[in-house]
């Protein structure tokens, strides 16, 4: 399965509505990041700080939505969108992987996602965020990790997850076989080239969370 990392961040201005609309033409699922902004809304943005990705400074957590929507994300002319706006912008035939960047956004993001007609997968590095969603909804969950962790399959199962999202450098056939044997899908990130995708397909992964739309050929 081809999953568009931040709306194919290597091809488009990441986490913008334009990126998601473009990605939806080729991807089976789009992946995005959510946070709470200063006025309380659930917005789609990767970083805690604004300066790397926009023409503004400050933190998302301290900036109101009316300012965020007026930002220019990576020179695209687009502002920071609401999570609800992404569901409206993208066909319900395309899945949405909602990554929770903070614990405080978990409950609100789950409520928005449950109301959407899309297939939704909620992922996070933060176990407590996944626990919040698990307690409040029936949404499928994915345990996301960046560096080596002790027994990631068991950690995912302890969080009632349906999928494991490991970084590409830690993926091998043994991990995939173990995860599959315990009923977990394996979606790998961030995939940047066709060669990487080919290697991962050879070890049996279920999905590639990719920066470009052509990694599967």
Automatic annotation (TrEMBL):
InterPro entries, per database record: GP_PDE_dom, PLC-like_Pdiesterase_TIM-brl
GO molecular function: phosphoric diester hydrolase activity
Domain GP-PDE: 1-217
GO terms for biological process, alphabetical: lipid metabolic process
Pfam families: GDPD
Source organism, top-level taxon: Archaea
Name of the protein in its database record: Glycerophosphodiester phosphodiesterase
Protein source organism: Halorarum halophilum
């Amino acid at each position: 399965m081809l999953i568009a990392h931040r709306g194919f961040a290597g091809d488009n201005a990441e986490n913008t509505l334009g990126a998601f609309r473009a990605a939806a033409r080729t991807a089976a699922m789009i992946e995005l990041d959510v946070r709470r902004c200063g006025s309380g809304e659930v917005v789609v943005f990767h970083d805690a700080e604004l300066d790397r990705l926009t023409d503004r400074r400050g933190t998302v957590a301290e900036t109101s939505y009316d300012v965020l929507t007026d930002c220019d994300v990576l020179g695209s002319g687009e502002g920071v969108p609401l999570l609800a706006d992404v569901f409206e912008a993208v066909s319900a035939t395309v899945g949405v992987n909602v990554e929770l960047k903070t614990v405080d956004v978990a409950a609100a993001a789950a409520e928005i996602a449950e109301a959407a007609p899309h297939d939704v997968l909620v992922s996070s590095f933060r176990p407590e965020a996944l626990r919040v969603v698990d307690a409040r909804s029936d949404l499928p969950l994915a345990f996301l990790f960046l560096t080596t962790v002790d027994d990631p399959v068991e950690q995912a199962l302890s969080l009632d997850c349906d999928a494991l999202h490991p970084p590409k450098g830690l993926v091998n056939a043994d991990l995939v076989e173990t995860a599959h044997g315990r009923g977990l899908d394996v979606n790998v990130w961030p995939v940047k080239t066709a060669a990487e995708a080919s290697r991962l397909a050879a070890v049996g992964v279920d999905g590639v969370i990719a920066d470009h739309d052509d990694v599967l050929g």
